[in-house]
C-alpha cells in the first residue's frame, strides 16, 4: 500500500500528519526513527499503517513495539497478528511479555498505573536500543475528550485542563494523531481494507476512566456530536497558553528551583506565581499538581504563614519561610 | 433573626460573604443598596435571609424583586409567599408579571432566552428605580459546575471556561454566593428554621441545560463528590487569569477597537492576539465568542487571507484586510 494507491482524501489526511507535527507540536518528522506503540487494536493499527504510508516520502525508520500484557485470553492471538502484519510490511518488530500482576504485587501500586509504567518502560527500552527519536502513540481526539473530562474531575488547572501534551520531550513521546477522531481512523482502515484486532472488552482497569468513557462521554456527545472536535480546539488553546507561559515565566537557574526567593515573587501577578510554583514542582519529578494545592500554597505565601508546609503528590513539599518558599521532598517515615 | 441568634458556624459562614465579595470579586458590600433577585425558591430564599442578617452590621439597603413568570400553576402562591416574607422582614418588595409566551411570540427567540431577558430587564428597572448599586443573584457553586459543563460543551475558551463572572459591572450584577454549595444553603435554611417554596419541576426550559443538570452532573458527582468545590477552584483560577489578561492586553483607544492595525499585532504572542480579538468582539455587544471562531480568525490573519470575513454570534464580523482586521456588524438582508 502506497500513498498514491489510496483514495485521495485519505492520502491528503495522511499528509496532514507531518504538518500537524510540525505546526502544532513543533516536531519535524522527516528522517526520524520512530518506535510505534502497536497493540494491534484499531487505533494503533491505523497509526502503524499511516506511518508506513509516510515511510518512503518522509524517509522514516519504523520499529513496532508490542506489549503483551497477558491479562486477556486473546493476547496471544494479538501478538501473532501484530508480528505477521509487521513482517508483511517489513517493519522491525519487538514484543515483550509484561507480567503486570507480579509487578503490581511487588510495587503495591494500582493495576492501571503498573501496566502503564511497565508499558512505557518497555517502549523506552526499545527506543534506546534502536536509538529512535520518538515513541509514537495513537492517542486521538476522542482520547483527548476523555482526558479533558478526567482532568476536569481531578481538578487540573489551566492549561493542563486542555489535555495531554502532543509532544513530551522528557519522555520522548510523540502523539501525531491528536487531531484525528476515532471515526476517522476507523474509516481509514475500512476504506483501505486494513484489518485490526477488536478489543473485546475495551475496558480500562481504571474504573473512573471506564465510566467516563462508557457513561459520561456518550452523554456529552449526545449534546454536542462534535465534542471530540470541540476538545481538540480546547487542546489547541491550551498548547498556545502553555507556550505563552513558558516564555512569560522567568528562567530560574537550577539552585533557585529549590528555593524561590521572596524577591522573585515580588510584584509578580498571581497568575504567574501559580505557574512558577507548578514549573518548579513539575521539574522535581512525577506527581500531578492540582489547582487546589497551588492556590493553597499561594494563600499561605501571601499571608506569610511561615512554617506552613503544603504537601504535593509525589512526596513533594513546599515550605513557607520568611525569605521565600523552599521546595523539597518529604522524609519518608521508616 | 440576627447574626448573634444563629449557630456560630452559620454566622461565620454568613460573614464570609462580604469577605468573598471583597477579596474575590473586588466589591465592598458595606453601605450598598442591593436588589435581591428573589423567586422564593431555596437558593434565593437563602440569599435574601443571608443578606438580611448582614443588613444591620453592613448597613445594607435591600430591595427584593420577584418575577412572576406565570408559567407554572404555583406561581401565584410563590408571589404571595415572597410578599409575606418581605413584609415580615421589612424588606422593600417589588413584583412584576412577565408574560413570557407573548414576549416570545413577539421576539421569535427561544423560551429560556426570552424569560432570561425579561427577568433581567425587570431586575434592572428595579435597580434603576431604587438607585441600587447591584442586582444580587443566588448563583452558587453547583450552578458554577453546571455552567462549566455547559461551556465545555459549547466550546468556550479560557478563561471563559471557568464559568460565569462573580461580578458584571456592565449589567450591574453581583453573585455573592458563588463559593457556597447548594447543600450549604439548604443547611442554612434548615438550621435556622426558614421555609422556602420547593420548585416542583426544577426543570429549565433549555433541554441541554436540563440534561446536564439531571443526567450529566450526577455522574460527575459520582466520580468526584466534591465536584462543586473542584468547579469553584477552576473558577478561581479563571478569575485570576481574567484579571491577568485584562492587565496584559494593551488598552486600545476606542477608534482602534473597530480596526486592529497590523502594527498592533506584530510580535504579539498568539495567546495575546486571541484575547485581543475577544476583548474587541465582547465590547461590541452580546453574542458569545467561541474558541473555534477566534482560532479561525487568527489563522486567516496570519495567512494574510485578505478579504476573508469571519462571522461571530451577534451578527459581528471580522474582516481581514492588508492593513489590519476590521470589526463590524453584518448588514442584515431586509
Walkthrough of the structure:
The first copy, chain A, is of the alpha/beta class. Helix content of chain A is 50%, strand content 13%. Chain A contains twelve helices and ten strands. In chain A, the strands form two sheets. Chain A has a six-stranded mixed beta sheet, sandwiched between helices. The longest helix of chain A has 22 residues. Chain A is globular. At the A-B interface, helix 6, helix 8, helix 9, helix 11 and helix 12 of A face helix 6, helix 8, helix 9, helix 11 and helix 12 of B.
Main β-sheet of chain A, in a few words? 6 strands, mixed
Determine the CATH topology of the largest domain in chain A. Answer: Rossmann fold
The CATH top-level class label of the largest domain in chain A: Alpha Beta
| Number of distinct helices of chain A | 12
Q: What is the 3D form of chain A?
A: globular
Beta percentage of chain A is 5-15%
Low-confidence stretches of chain A: none
Helix/strand/pairing category of chain A: alpha/beta
In what order do the strands lie side by side in the largest sheet of chain A?
A: 3-2-1-4-6-5
The assigned CATH architecture of the largest domain in chain A is: 3-Layer(aba) Sandwich
Number of strands of chain A: 10
Quaternary structure state of the chains depicted: homodimer
- The fourth-level CATH homologous superfamily of the largest domain in chain A is HUPs
Radius of gyration of chain A: 22 Å
GO molecular function, one term (chains A, B): tRNA(Ile)-lysidine synthase activity
Domain tRNA(Ile)-lysidine/2-thiocytidine synthase N-terminal (chains A, B): 34-214
Keywords (chains A, B): ATP-binding, Cytoplasm, Ligase, Nucleotide-binding, tRNA processing
Subcellular location (chains A, B): Cytoplasm
Amino acid at each position: 500500500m502506497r500513498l498514491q494507491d489510496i483514495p485521495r482524501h485519505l492520502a491528503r489526511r495522511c499528509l496532514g500528519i507531518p504538518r500537524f507535527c510540525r505546526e502544532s507540536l513543533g516536531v519535524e518528522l522527516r528522517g526520524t526513527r520512530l518506535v510505534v506503540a502497536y497493540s494491534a487494536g484499531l487505533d494503533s493499527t491505523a497509526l502503524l499503517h499511516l506511518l508506513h504510508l509516510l515511510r518512503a516520502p518522509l524517509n522514516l525508520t519504523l520499529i513496532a513495539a508490542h506489549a503483551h500484557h497477558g491479562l486477556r485470553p486473546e493476547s496471544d492471538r494479538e501478538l501473532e497478528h501484530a508480528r505477521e502484519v509487521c513482517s508483511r510490511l517489513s517493519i522491525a518488530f519487538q514484543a515483550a511479555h509484561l507480567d503486570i500482576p507480579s509487578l503490581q504485587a511487588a510495587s503495591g501500586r494500582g493495576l492501571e498505573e503498573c501496566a502503564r509504567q511497565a508499558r512505557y518502560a518497555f517502549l523506552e527500552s526499545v527506543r534506546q536500543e534502536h536509538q529512535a527519536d520518538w515513541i509514537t502513540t495513537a492517542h486521538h481526539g476522542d482520547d483527548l475528550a476523555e482526558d479533558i473530562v478526567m482532568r476536569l474531575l481531578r481538578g487540573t488547572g489551566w492549561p493542563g485542563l486542555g489535555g495531554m501534551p502532543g509532544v513530551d520531550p522528557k519522555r520522548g513521546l510523540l502523539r501525531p494523531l491528536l487531531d484525528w477522531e476515532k471515526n476517522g481512523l476507523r474509516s481509514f482502515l475500512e476504506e483501505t481494507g486494513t484489518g485490526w484486532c477488536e478489543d473485546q472488552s475495551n475496558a480500562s482497569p481504571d474504573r473512573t476512566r471506564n465510566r467516563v468513557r462508557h457513561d459520561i462521554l456518550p452523554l456529552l456527545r449526545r449534546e454536542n456530536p462534535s465534542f471530540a472536535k470541540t476538545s481538540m480546539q480546547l487542546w489547541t488553546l491550551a498548547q498556545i497558553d502553555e507556550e505563552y507561559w513558558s516564555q512569560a515565566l522567568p528562567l530560574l537557574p537550577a539552585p533557585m528551583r529549590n528555593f524561590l526567593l521572596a524577591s522573585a515573587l515580588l510584584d509578580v501577578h498571581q497568575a504567574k506565581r501559580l505557574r512558577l510554583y507548578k514549573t518548579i514542582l513539575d521539574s522535581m519529578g512525577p506527581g500531578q499538581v492540582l489547582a487546589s494545592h497551588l492556590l493553597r500554597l499561594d494563600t499561605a505565601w501571601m499571608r506569610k504563614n511561615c512554617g506552613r508546609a503544603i504537601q504535593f503528590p509525589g512526596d513533594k513539599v513546599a515550605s513557607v519561610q520568611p525569605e521565600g518558599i523552599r521546595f523539597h521532598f518529604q522524609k519518608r517515615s521508616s
